[in-house]
Amino acid sequence: MGKVKWKNFDLKGKRVSILLKRIINRISGLLFEYPNIELMGLVKKALKNESGYDLLISIAVPYPVHWGVAVVWNNKKKENNPAKVWVADCGDPYFGRENDSFKVPFYWGWVEKWFMRKTDYVSVPTDTAYLGYFKEFHHKIKVIPQGFKFEDYQFYQMPRQNDFPTFAFAGLFIPGRRDPTAFSLFLLETNRNFRFHIYTKNSALIDSFIKRAPEKFILHSFIPRMELLEKLHHEVDFVVNFENVGVRQTPSKLIDYMLINKPIISVKSFDLNKENILRFLDKDYSGALKINHPEQYRVENVAAAFLALS
To answer: Which of 41, 46, 47, 55 is nearest to 89 (CA)?
Structure first.
């Protein structure tokens, strides 16, 4: 589609400078969808040279990919469109998001309605994700899970036998939503020996615990997804999921965890099931999160579901 030129400020420099850049990046993203808005023009330009397809699938995030398709899509003269059918695949909702610290401005609702009027279908990954979208488009929504190639998850190292309960979280924390504070406090209150490995790039909510007990709370930088999953398969007893607010957004990493055969403890940030946490520390995983109908996540079945819409 061409080279992406627009970028956020890099977070280098002194503390005040970094803070100012963070604020600018955040505001420009919320108000103007900068820098992702550049993709709208690039998609529009690329699709003007395409025609004759049976099916076009646009994928968000970021949502300007959908908006670029909408610019060239004409519901009145369908013969001029790049494809016969357009499916807009949406992971997390945009305007109806629940787990961001800030609500997007009202005018992005108009943009969402504009592009969704043009789509033939909107695909979402879970049964409850439709709640994140305007009711007038619910009839267009099809549930198609995220696809995984199961064969990629066949690791050859056997899981390690740990001396202490060893577990991990990977992802981003969100203050007041996906928040590890109460969970970490309770872990310390148990006076148990444990190792909690945290793979994140926003460690502010966990820094105080790392300082208090650096031998128990161990911080890691992000690493490539499959490398991470192989480490989790080999090194930890179970994995931690901090639940999102509401039911509109479901983390795809839960399927990753299922495929590496690790018990999942699903934690409500401010409503702890302390009995279940203690059971996990005792290696009793009877309260582990269950993933129903795993075959639906096979990429072969997901591809077939998309083709059925063409």
So the answer is: 55
Domains and CATH numbers, the chain: 15-144 (no CATH), 150-294 (3.40.50.2000)
For residue range 32-59, what is the model confidence (pLDDT) as tens digits? 999 999 999 999 999 998 999 999 999 9
Calpha distance 227→165 (Å, rounded): 22
Two tokens, residue 194? 């444990």
> In the numeric block, which tokens belong to residue 22?
């963070």
Per-residue tokens: 116 = 């969704």
φ, ψ for residue 198 (rounded to 5)? -120, 120
Distance (Å) of CA 243 to CA 91, 117, 212, 249, 267: 16, 32, 25, 9, 6
pTM to 2 decimal places: 0.78
Burial (0-12, 13-18, 19+ Cβ within 10 Å), 153: middle
